[in-house]
Amino acid sequence: MTRQRIFSGIQPSGNLHIGNYLGAIQQFVGLQETTDAIFCIVDLHAITVPQDPEELRKKTLEVAMIYLACGIDPKKSIMFVQSHNHDHAELAWILNTLTPLGELERMTQFKEKRQSAEKRRGVLSGLLNYPTLMAADILLYQTDVVPVGEDQKQHVELTRSIAERFNNRFGDTFMLPKEMLNKSAERIMGLDDPSKKMSKSAKSANNYIALLDSPDEILRKIKTAMTDSGSEIRFDKKAKSAVSNLLAVYHAFSKESIKNLENRYAGKGYAEFKKDLGEIIIAKLEPIQNRFRELEKNSDEVMKIIREGAERSGAISQKTLSEVKQKIGLIA
Ligand code: TYM
């Protein structure tokens, strides 16, 4: 049996946090053992909202180092920067010409980002076309499975319908991809507001625990994380959304069942629970942070890995793009 193809990406914008890790990166590391895995740093997606050029360059390399520090192994997977493989932008353009405006306007992420962009400098058309670029990312590699957090599910569904429409009109060309969620951490909520997902672009850094936060910062952020009324530590997303989120994080990092955790902390207050949780997160992030610091001293090596990744990815994406161009009537 041929191995399944996995593709996923992360934007080099803001600080990568434990939501990105538990929802996405942790799955990547496991999947590379049994699949043909491709991981991208999607800089062209990041620029759909204004970015500082120097900061964008820095963050792009930082995400590459975080991938490696978390355990992505370039011998087992391909990792590369989206803008280094021009096929992504080219297929995205073609897909834009085949995707009805209404389907893009209906995307939840667009509607949310549109609101915050309107308050600042206005909405850029790249933000609307974000999902067609994401569809290009996925479809170029004939991807079977896309490991992502719950917030990206709708984009993968749209990718599937873009692929289906293309296949119906021009003949079988694209695999139809499926999303894969980490059920126990598909949507980690903000520490300062458990009604919204933890987000790199949150206004306050107290919203998230960044993968590179120091132990002191982690303890402080967990200590000041919102809790619910009553002191009971119980998983109940409706009545106790803040504590349920902390329990989900605890479970995802420790693998201890939520039931066990509830029993262990029965009759104990938030302070003890939070202190233990902080320590577990610190212990899990410490080896990642140590590897990250080593890689920082070796950025030439990291550049070499992503350059090679771009070449290897291009060898695969070229085949799909040529077929698409031939089928829609472009002269070779
Ligand atoms: P991005 O950069 O916003 O997030 C990277 C990954 O982290 C997941 N994630 C979360 N999971 C659980 N809880 C959270 N609070 C949380 N916040 C983020 C995201 O779902 C994502 O898996 N559009 C994508 C990037 C992308 C992509 C692709 C993904 C571009 N092309 C092709 C897959 C395939 C994004 O914005 O991710």
Automatic annotation (TrEMBL):
* Class in the EC hierarchy, top level: ligase
- At which positions is L-tryptophan bound? 137
User: What molecular function does GO assign, one term?
Assistant: ATP binding
Where along the sequence does the record place the motif called 'KMSKS' region? Answer: 197-201
Output one GO BP term.
tryptophanyl-tRNA aminoacylation
**E.C. number(s) listed in UniProt:** 6.1.1.2
Which compartments does it reside in?
A: Cytoplasm
Give the residue interval(s) assigned to the motif 'HIGH' region: 12-20
Q: Does the keyword Metal-binding apply?
A: no
What are the boundaries of the signal sequence? none
Q: Which reaction does it catalyse?
A: tRNA(Trp) + L-tryptophan + ATP = L-tryptophyl-tRNA(Trp) + AMP + diphosphate + H(+)
What family does the entry list? Belongs to the class-I aminoacyl-tRNA synthetase family.
Q: How does it assemble?
A: Homodimer.
Q: What is this protein called?
A: Tryptophan--tRNA ligase
Q: Which organism is it from?
A: Candidatus Sungbacteria bacterium RIFCSPLOWO2_01_FULL_47_10
